[in-house]
Amino acid sequence: MQPDLLIWVLLALSATAFYLGRNRAFQSSGGHIRHLHSIPAYYGYYVALWCGLPALLLVILWLVLDDKLILYWIVSQLPEDIRRLPPDQLSLVINQIYNLMAGEVNPKNLDPALSAAAEHYRQLKEIGYRALTVLALATSTAGLTFSYRHISPSLRARNTVEKAIRYALILSSTLAIFVTIGIVLSVLFETLRFFARIPLTEFLFGLKWSPQMAIRADQVGASGAFGFIPLLTGTLLISAIAMLVATPIGLLAAIYLSEYANSHTRSFVKPLLEILAGIPTVVYGFFAALVVAPMLRDAGVALGLRVSGESALAAGLVMGVMIIPFVSSLTDDALTAVPRALREGAYGLGATQAETITGVILPAALPGIVSGLLLAVSRAIGETMIVVMAAGMTANLTLNPLESVTTITVQIVALLVGDQEFDSPKTLAAFALGLTLFLITLALNLIALHVVRKYREQYE
């Protein structure tokens, strides 16, 4: 049985165990629920956990170790000349075995030893799946039998189930932390390799970005140019244009929906506005490239201005439209969360609705508004598709919104597209850009946290 099908079978057994455990609790209490320590559903969860959790853990552990153990055994059975190959060549041989097993390579064109190894690998995988099925079902059945017989009115089922849930939450949060640390360390390690070849000062203060010059050592000017300033300037320029569009429109829309619109208008306009957040970014990119950019170019010709076909202004305007739902939705939630007593107190002192909004509600909702704006800035900084299609990929050091620029995320994608060698400055530069982008967004989050803490103490 394949692992995915086995997991569904174990989930079905756990659901069945829930009903068996709950019915067992009813029977053990003689039909009087008040005699039970916990409500009957907890007894069902207790049996379901014993039935499914150990078996699922066994499946996960098996899937983690199975392939490595089989691969170690297969490699140990290969001829001596293959096993003595360098690690990079041996990894190619292993990939050929994988391809043979998947049927993607004709075995007639390869070494018979590899064909035999692939067949042996396939047989061991089938044997492993059968053994896993037997062990998992046996473990699930044993857990069901043990927990079912253990049910009694005095069993503290709720305590056990809540303790299991607490451990699961702790494990999830710990896993998320370690995943984040792993991502940061992996990017940091590759970034250090990049700075071992390119000086940090050149990256941070260089005024030219041209990594494609470092593809081959025999090229003219093969040293490359890895100045970060043009990318940072383009990123901030497009993000600033986007926020200049999204901030006033989003704030005014949120104020209208939360303070002026009636319930019927709000129920119609708010979902309609939030539809913008569900539009794929590639659609925004098409709109920017096919509609907004030509329109700006024609307007520039009419005014005697030179507007590039791919400009920061086109990308920023469309990106601002895309960000409007983030600003309006989060601001609306912050305004709605302001206590009603503050509004009534302002009205009682004779303030008008406009004065109440500007003098009471907006200051009280400022932490939520700032958090929403900084989240929108992070969204703008991380956008890629709109910039690729509307602003281009040219790293120009300029503050003119009518010219073509590029951003950090666009260059990360450009550096990692296709077959790349992860030992050249050209490719390692993507990790340096990623770490820099991470630090920028981290700084924005810290600023938002500081503002929230400062003003929350003032108005709570």
Give a structural overview:
The chain is mostly helical and 460 residues long. It folds into two domains: 3-155, no CATH class; 225-459, MetI-like (MetI-like fold). Helices cover 76% and strands 1% of the residues. The protein is built from 17 helices and two strands. It has helices spanning 3-28, 40-76, 80-83, 87-102, 112-150, 157-195, 200-205, 229-260, 263-278, 281-303, 312-336, 340-348, 353-364, 366-381, 385-390, 408-416, 425-459; strands at residues 209-210, 225-226. α9 packs across α11 and α16 runs antiparallel to α17 (425-459). The protein is flat, with a radius of gyration of 31 Å. The model has no long low-confidence stretch (mean pLDDT 83).
The CATH architecture category of the largest domain equals Orthogonal Bundle
Number of domains: 2
CATH topology (fold) name of the largest domain: MetI-like fold
Going by CATH, the homologous superfamily of the largest domain would be: MetI-like
Tell me the series of helices and strands, N- to C-terminal.
Answer: HHHHHHHEEHHHHHHHHHH
Structural class: mainly alpha
Gross morphology: flat
Task: Quote the beta fraction.
Answer: under 5%
**Strand order, largest beta sheet:** 1-2
N- to C-terminal separation?
Answer: 58 Å
Strands, total number? 2
Oligomer: single chain
Number of helices: 17
Assigned CATH class of the largest domain: Mainly Alpha
Q: Mean pLDDT across all residues, rounded?
A: 83
Which range best describes the helical content: under 10%, 10-25%, 25-40%, 40-55%, 55-70% or over 70%?
over 70%
Biggest sheet statistics = 2 strands, antiparallel
Q: What radius of gyration results from the CA coordinates?
A: 31 Å
Q: Uncertain runs with pLDDT below 50, 5 residues or more?
A: none
